[in-house]
């Protein structure tokens, strides 16, 4: 008598190998107090130390950060700037193919070229610069092994928003390598102040983060009373990007695990005495 049954441990192992089968548990971090520094520090520790800066990857431990403040960062920033020029393993894409803007202190102080009141409205976590997509309020962050074109995943990502006026206007959406949604989080409100939002996962499986900053692309008419919420961004923080395993490697590993389980199960059945 032969009974084919995949053991439970094999199914659980496959679920860990293929993240589409079982999403990892997440831990959420958020803050909108007058000082969000303690939450940012806790999130940095959760991502891992040290800050790996511009070092080529992959590195086994640590995190990456982007604060926009170096003079080398241009006002009209290319989407691949923080992987091709400053090597931190992050590439930005906008849904409509639009560009990105980084404010420049003294020339475009916190986007005062768009609205002269914005320096009093947009606070900074790390002065003096801020970041925003242009002509859209939605951007995607894709991860790569730092200084390469090798796709990567991270185990956590967080961002600092400034001037979140309306609830449910600003959020982070996390996706795995297959485009499956892992988590969606809304940032807490803090008019003319800072809001922090981030999450870490139990396994490294985040291939893309979509950032929705406010409900309207940056422009001169931030008007929350009439439902228009313009939000811009400060620091980004994320774990060290790790290369995505080749699909064939995952398939062979998963097949091998299932095969071993089937073989052991069949052997046990064969060796079990039967009565007639």
Describe, in plain words, how this protein is organized in 3D.
This protein is α+β, with helices and mostly antiparallel strands. The chain has one domain (8-249): Jelly Rolls (Sandwich), CATH 2.60.120. Helices cover 20% and strands 28% of the residues. The protein contains 5 helices and 15 strands. The protein has helices at residues 8-17, 37-47, 81-85, 118-121, 247-271, and strands at residues 26-31, 63-66, 76-77, 90-94, 100-102, 131-133, 138-143, 152-153, 156-164, 171-175, 181-186, 190-201, 208-212, 232-239, 242-243. The strands form 4 sheets. Strands 1-12-9-14-2 form a 5-stranded antiparallel sheet, with helices on one face. Strands 4-7-13-10-11 form a 5-stranded antiparallel sheet. The protein has a 3-stranded antiparallel sheet with strand order 3-5-6, with no helix packed on it. β10 (171-175) and β11 form a beta hairpin. α1 (8-17) runs antiparallel to α5 (247-271). The longest helix is centred in the C-terminal third of the chain and has 25 residues, at 247-271. The radius of gyration is 23 Å and the shape is globular. Residues 1-22 and 248-255 have low confidence and may be disordered.
Task: Kindly estimate the percentage of residues that lie in beta strands according to DSSP.
Answer: 25-35%
Helix-residue proportion: 10-25%
What overall form do the CA principal axes indicate? globular
Span of the ends, CA to CA: 12 Å
């Amino acid at each position: 008598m032969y009974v084919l049954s995949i053991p439970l441990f094999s199914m659980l192992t496959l679920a860990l190998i293929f993240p589409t089968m079982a999403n990892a548990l997440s831990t959420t971090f958020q803050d909108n107090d007058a000082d969000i520094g303690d939450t940012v520090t806790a999130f940095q520790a959760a991502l891992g130390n040290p800050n790996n800066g511009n070092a080529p990857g992959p590195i086994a431990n640590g995190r990456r950060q982007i604060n926009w403040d170096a003079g080398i960062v241009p006002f009209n920033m290319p989407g691949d700037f923080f992987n091709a020029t400053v090597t931190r393993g992050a590439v930005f894409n906008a849904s409509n193919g639009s560009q990105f803007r980084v404010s420049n202190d003294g020339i475009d102080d916190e986007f005062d070229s768009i609205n002269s009141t914005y320096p009093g409205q947009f606070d900074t976590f790390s002065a003096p610069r801020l970041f925003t997509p242009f002509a859209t309020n939605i951007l995607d962050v894709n991860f790569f092994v730092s200084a390469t074109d090798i796709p990567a995943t991270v185990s956590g990502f967080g961002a600092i928003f400034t001037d979140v006026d309306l609830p449910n206007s600003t959020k982070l959406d996390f996706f795995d390598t297959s485009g499956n949604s892992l988590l969606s989080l809304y940032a807490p409100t803090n008019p003319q102040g800072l809001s922090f939002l981030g999450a870490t996962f139990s396994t490294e499986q985040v291939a893309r983060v979509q950032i929705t900053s406010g409900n309207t692309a940056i422009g001169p008419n931030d008007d929350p009373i009439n439902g228009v919420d313009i939000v811009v961004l400060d620091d980004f923080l994320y774990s060290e990007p790790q290369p995505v395993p080749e699909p064939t490697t995952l398939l062979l590993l998963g097949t091998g695990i299932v095969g071993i389980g089937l073989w052991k199960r069949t052997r046990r059945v064969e060796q079990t005495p039967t009565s007639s």
